[in-house]
Design a protein that fits this description.
Lipocalin; alpha+beta; 3 helices; disordered C terminus
Length: 179
């Protein structure tokens, strides 16, 4: 349940902000995506253990200013080279994701030299896409936290519900970093 709470809160916050920014405007269209990776599918539990990302891509735009969701970022977008060329369709991309990493040996809490430590990364992403019939280029900035604020341990423990054996979990991670 503890993993569901942060994702639910963040999802509701993003939805509320999106509704407030787009109130009274025609922002129809776009694409929502759900991206799930998990070593459960391969029957392993090592290194990159799990990834979950929810994303939204705007409808095709002629200019980024055609989307009210882009307005806070237009001063930055206008500084970036190439993305405002007129011969391309454009999209705005927003994402919320979490990645979880574990060592090969999940039976010990000790930090194992030359092995990946337990880690989690919770992040938000904003990006731009430019495309035509021949090319699709994207630039995305992901900003997030690691350590307890990433809820990696809670997400890793959900494997108990799936019948997987649980390792020692995240005993060596104790930092929170913001970028």
């Amino acid at each position: 349940m503890t993993l569901i709470r942060p994702f639910t809160c963040l999802s509701l916050a993003i939805a509320a902000i999106s509704c407030a920014l787009g109130a009274g405007k025609d922002e129809a269209g776009g694409t929502f995506g759900l991206y799930l990776e998990n070593d459960l599918f391969a029957g392993t539990d090592q290194h990159y253990t799990s990834g979950l990302k929810m994303s939204w891509s705007s409808r095709d735009l002629e200019q980024y200013s055609d989307s009210s969701y882009a307005s806070p970022f237009l001063p930055i977008f206008n500084l970036l080279p190439y993305i405002n060329e007129t011969n391309y369709q454009k999209n705005l991309v927003l994402a919320l994701g979490q990645n979880i990493y574990t060592p090969v040996n999940t039976d010990t809490r000790a930090l194992i030299p030359d092995d990946r430590p337990y880690a989690g990364w919770l992040y938000l992403g904003i990006g731009v896409v430019r495309k035509n019939d021949d090319v699709r280029n994207s630039l995305v900035l992901d900003v997030g936290v690691v350590g307890p604020w990433s809820y990696g341990e809670e997400a890793y423990r959900t494997k108990e519900f799936k019948g997987q054996e649980e390792g020692q979990t995240f005993g060596t991670v104790s930092l929170n970093w913001t970028f």
